[in-house]
Design a protein that fits this description.
- The chain is α/β, with parallel strands linked by helices and 367 residues long.
- The protein contains 15 helices and twelve strands.
- The strands form three sheets. It has a six-stranded mixed beta sheet, with helices on both faces. It has a three-stranded mixed beta sheet with strand order 3-9-8, sandwiched between helices.
- Strand 8 and strand 9 form a beta hairpin.
- Helix 1 runs parallel beside helix 9 and helix 4 runs antiparallel to helix 5.
- About 3% of the residues have low confidence.
Length: 367
């Protein structure tokens, strides 16, 4: 299952966001640094209205959404790469995730302590980025030393390490280095902290979010967007963690009414999950459906039909014959597999077919 780490400085709203994402109180929340020590882990459903529409149409008894795992990681501070604030332990937790959501505080509140003494979101982003770069540098230099001692030497990986060390030494993340084709497998295997796709979750004051019209003019949020526009390989989303915490206590109907009262169209948590799923992780969803079950399945963008079948069961990939495919839009409009076949909207695709987001599929296989 894909894993996303929630990181940031202490007291920026990481654990509160985690609780809102998981609709739980698993993560302790307190107004002091390092309230979280051990990472909190929660599995979150990916919001997708198509799943409910399909299941209602087919009168499915079981509905299974796609899911991703969020990991609430303790706050990092300046010097984390050298062990400050248990930094080495916390950085090791980040190494295990597939992508990063960095929570950035973008509001003033004298009652909430800031470890740097004042709110400056760009400075905070650069503090975290520097620590990740320094941790990667230390890791790479250690690995380079070991590889140079080996006989025979692995020249391709050594050359990559040299380039990476020079690149990181200039303050650039590994994600901005373009490896040669033969170097990419080695780069992927390193699992570098700065190679992970990142999303900045700008934690704005609830009044700023509720005002909506003034949101883009908020100086803190504007500074983060300007920073990203200067070339950072990431995305930005504005979210009021306090509002999301309150929404997580309400039913779906009550939450909708609460948001409508604020003049906000949708939950920031939903937007964050979808952005992380679609853009950060590059994931797509296809569906299988029938009276027994409607199931959403997660694949990577560009996956071919046999690999998509293998997500259900390895036997389907091993014995793959063909995929019967209809787009979600056509399936909903026509109402059934039979009608899709009659209308000529059902296609039979082979092994080279790249599964598209929203495809409704039945697999033919023989084991």
């Amino acid at each position: 299952m894909p894993k996303i780490g929630i990181v940031g400085l202490p007291n920026v709203g990481k654990s509160t966001l985690f609780n809102a994402l998981t609709r739980s109180h698993r993560a302790q929340v307190a107004n002091f640094p390092f309230c979280t020590i051990k990472p909190n882990v929660g599995i979150v459903n990916v919001p997708d209205t198509r799943l409910g529409t399909l299941s209602e149409l087919m009168k499915s008894k079981i509905v299974v959404p796609t899911t991703i795992e969020f990991v609430d990681i303790a706050g990092l501070v300046k010097g984390a790469s050298e062990g400050e604030g248990l930094g080495n332990q916390f950085l090791s937790h980040i190494r295990k995730v597939d992508a990063i959501v960095q929570v950035v505080r973008c509001f003033e509140n004298t009652e909430i302590h800031h470890v740097a003494g004042a709110v400056d979101p760009v400075r905070d982003i650069e503090t975290i980025s520097t620590e990740l770069v320094l941790a990667d540098l230390a890791f790479l230099q250690k690995r380079e030393g070991k590889l140079k001692a080996r006989i025979p030497k692995q020249e391709v990986e050594l050359h990559l390490l040299e380039k990476l060390i020079q690149h990181l030494d200039k303050g650039h993340p590994a994600s901005s280095l373009k490896p040669l084709k033969e170097e990419k497998p080695f780069l992927d295997a390193l699992c570098l902290l700065t190679s992970k796709p990142t999303l900045f979750a700008c934690n704005v004051h609830e009044e700023d979010l509720a005002g909506q019209g003034n949101l883009a003019e908020a100086s803190f949020l504007q500074s983060v967007k300007a920073y990203v526009a200067r070339g950072s390989c990431t995305e930005t989303i504005a979210i009021s963690v306090q509002i999301e915490s309150e929404l997580s206590e309400l039913s779906l109907t009550e939450a909708g009414e609460f948001l409508a009262g604020l003049g906000v169209e949708d939950s920031g948590v939903k937007q964050l999950i979808r952005t992380a799923y679609d853009n950060l992780l590059g994931l797509r969803t296809y569906f299988t459906t029938g009276p027994k079950e409607t199931h959403a399945w997660t694949i990577h963008d560009g996956d071919r039909a046999p690999a998509a079948a293998g997500i259900i069961h390895s036997d389907l990939e091993r014995g793959f014959i063909a995929a019967e495919v209809v787009s979600y839009e056509d399936f909903i409009q026509l109402g059934s597999w039979a009608q899709a076949r009659t209308a000529g909207c059902l296609r039979v695709e082979g092994r080279k077919y790249m599964v598209r987001d929203g495809d409704v599929i039945e697999f033919r296989f023989n084991v």
